[in-house]
Amino acid sequence: MKLAPLFFLLPFFSFSQDRPFEIFGEISGDNHSKIYLFFEGHYKQIDSISCEIDNGKFYFKGKVTLPILAKLHMDRPSTIVDIYIDNSRTYLKCKTKTVFTNNGQDTLNVLSVVSVKGSATEKLKSDFEAWLVNLKKSEASDGEKREAYYQKLAAFIKKHPKNKVSMYLLGKASTLSYSQLKELNSLIDTSINKTFEAKTVKSQLNQLDKSKNYAVGVGFQDFVLRDSSGNEIDTKQFKGKYTLIVCWTSWCGPCRAEHPDLNVLYKKYKDKDFAIVGVSFDRDKQKWKQAIAKDQLLWPQLIDPNAFDGEMAKYYGIESVPASYLLDKDGKIVSVGLTAEEIEGMIKSILD
């Protein structure tokens, strides 16, 4: 196969003396500048391996332990897509779409994978994910969907107990119960217990175990954090109002996309015993303050400089954002993880 000169100038990288691989990619859609690659949970390297897109094509090569979970994204802010590579050559077809957020002030590069050839591991993953999409679209009840999901995943794991995809899919099974997840985890061969995927399952189990801390009717665990002026604020001071605790970061596109709707919600109900409190998990205070100003946030903003290692994140098992908690006047949890539209519906039924 004859390669264009472009390919010989692209990055070559190696994590260890492992198997060589090449990724040949084609991309269509709105964004044709650069595409980035990193592996597993190496988020510190998220922007370090890049490739210029030329005539709708891109190329990566290197050496890694195969199979491995590769992650691709465009210029940030961008969605991140997961694919498994398990062979010396993998062929991808991708597409991008630009979505406007924050009332048209910001953009989000939405990257998606159309097809993958050359990876049997990825085919296992994508076939299961396609089945799951169809299940979610079905007219079955939530209980029936959950049971079908559990049975399908159990059958998959029993058939592929040593495959990383079993761990990967289990780590994504957020709708299953703690006991179901733990039982399925016991079916996986111990030979892959130290993989990146195993860490995500452990994280998922931890989150489900911590779910008792944010069950409906449980009192919110108050914290003392500093606001954007450096003042210490105790979250218990908001008792007496229905309060929405919103956890976010400056680099989280979906978080900031919600801000305009939350601003509208705050203006509408702030004089009717309703409050919103932002809690940032940014480590960079300057970027946090810049995001507050740019998004013109109207409600109190607090920050935990320890981010996801802080007390609040650990207590509630928060490992990603956005995350939110709606509290009643007594500081008890009413609901978690609602969209701005769902929150308004609930607040409207209570306060109007």
Describe what you observe in this structure:
- It contains 10 helices and 16 strands.
- The protein is of the alpha+beta class and 352 residues long.
- It has a 7-stranded mixed beta sheet, covered by helices on one side.
- Strand 13, helix 8 and strand 14 form a beta-alpha-beta unit.
- Helix 2 runs parallel beside helix 4, helix 4 runs parallel beside helix 6 and helix 5 packs antiparallel against helix 6.
- The longest helix is centred in the middle third of the chain and has 18 residues.
- The N terminus is likely disordered.
Largest sheet: 7 strands, mixed
Number of strands: 16
Q: Can you write the helix and strand succession as a string?
A: HEEEEEEEEEHHHHHEEEHEHEHEEH
Rounded Rg: 22 Å
- Poorly predicted sequence stretches spanning 5 or more consecutive residues: 1-16
What general outline do the C-alpha atoms trace?
globular
Residues in helix, %: 25-40%
Amino-to-carboxy terminus distance: 68 Å
Strand order of the largest sheet: 11-10-14-13-12-15-16
Label the structural class.
alpha+beta
- Count of helical regions: 10
